[in-house]
Amino acid sequence: MRRSASCSDGRGVHHALTAAAIAGAVAVAPCVAAVLAPVEDALARAFPAATRIEKKTLYLDVDRAARIEREAGSELPSRIVTCYEARGAGDGGDPLLGWACLDTHVVRTLPETVLVVVGPDLRVRRVEVLAFK
Hints:
Blueprint: H1 13-24, E1 34-35, H2 39-46, E2 50-59, H3 62-72, E3 80-88, E4 96-107, E5 110-118, E6 124-132
Antiparallel strand pairs: 1-6, 2-3, 3-4, 4-5, 5-6
Helix pairs in contact: 1-3
């Protein structure tokens, strides 16, 4: 039985959260109110070779949340975070392709949702605006 993901599981998921927090701190230029892309479509673009994308709920402990907030220079709205883990077919079985985290935050006075994609090397690969209301 698979155990649920947590930031203490040693797989580096907390780096994906740090990237999401940093991306959330970046303001974007104003645009027309719209949902620009469904999450499923954005995940398919981010991980075209994925054979499996699993939604995971991460529960950050107080120390991990404080560290992320320090690194990002902004406050997390919650210590509960939803991420997606992508895996593909490969010689070694089920190789990790990366993680994607959703971040919804207020830009000026309106909500924006971005998808931050982090590769297995823990580098940000893609940031996509999914909605700006």
